[in-house]
């Protein structure tokens, strides 16, 4: 078996490493306004509007959430009660998926680990500290002035690492935010973490599928 030998392993954070709980919060906060049988679609629509918001010029992440939430409420004809700040304040409190700390610990002292997160500087380190492994670099959309999936986010990361797309293994549980633009950036080595929130996967983007971060060391021979 041949193993990948990247100079850096680069990660998406929210959803891939950190247990991103936007959907759970939405189900709780909107239980009185959205019927139970329609809630899954409401959550999906909120996610779609967040994606749409990050495709434009950079704006602070609290604005991204608040605008996306107001838009989905308008679309659904439900009352928006300015809950956006509640989501923003909750993000730094979220910890990792259960498989993450042990998986990262097997790699961290052998291959430098890097994060690029669609986050603000004031948020991300609280989440990173909970991951239980040292990171070589942590980049944010605020620093790059661009959110993934914009290619400018990946350009910022590679430029600041001083490497090319051939030097990294990019790991994410999201095709739309990470693996599709990584493919456009000619990042050949990609790992899709099948968390279940983006299915089906698409083989055209060329990736190694793993069930969780516990399987990541096997890709790099550790």
From TrEMBL:
The keyword Hydrolase applies. GO terms for molecular function: hydrolase activity, acting on acid halide bonds, in C-halide compounds. CDD domains: HAD_L2-DEX. InterPro entries: 2-HAD, HAD-like_sf, HAD-SF_hydro_IA, HAD_sf, S-2-haloacid_dehalogenase. It comes from the Bacteria. Keywords: Hydrolase. The keyword Hydrolase applies. Pfam families: Hydrolase. SUPFAM superfamilies: HAD-like. PANTHER family: ACID DEHALOGENASE, PUTATIVE (AFU_ORTHOLOGUE AFUA_6G14460)-RELATED, HYDROLASE, HALOACID DELAHOGENASE-RELATED. This is Dehalogenase. It comes from Pseudomonas fluorescens.
């Amino acid at each position: 078996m041949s193993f990948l030998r990247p100079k850096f392993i680069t990660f998406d954070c929210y959803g891939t490493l950190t247990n991103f709980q936007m959907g759970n919060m939405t189900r709780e906060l909107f239980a009185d306004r959205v019927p139970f049988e329609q809630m899954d679609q409401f959550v999906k629509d909120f996610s779609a509007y967040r994606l749409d918001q990050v495709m434009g010029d950079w704006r602070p992440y609290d604005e991204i959430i608040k605008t996306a939430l107001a838009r989905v409420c308008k679309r659904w004809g439900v009352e928006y009660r300015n809950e956006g700040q509640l989501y923003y304040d909750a993000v730094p409190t979220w910890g990792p998926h259960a498989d993450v700390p042990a998986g990262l610990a097997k790699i961290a002292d052998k291959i430098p680990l890097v994060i690029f997160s669609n986050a603000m500087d004031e948020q991300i380190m609280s989440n990173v500290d909970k991951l239980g492994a040292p990171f070589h670099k942590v980049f944010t959309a605020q620093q790059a002035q661009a959110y993934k999936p914009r290619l400018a986010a990946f350009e910022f990361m590679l430029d600041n690492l001083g490497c090319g797309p051939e030097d990294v293994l990019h790991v994410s549980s999201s095709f739309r935010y990470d693996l599709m633009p990584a493919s456009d950036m000619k990042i050949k080595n990609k790992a899709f973490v099948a968390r279940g929130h983006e299915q089906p996967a698409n083989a055209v983007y060329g990736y190694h599928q793993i069930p969780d971060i516990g399987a990541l060391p096997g890709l790099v021979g550790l």
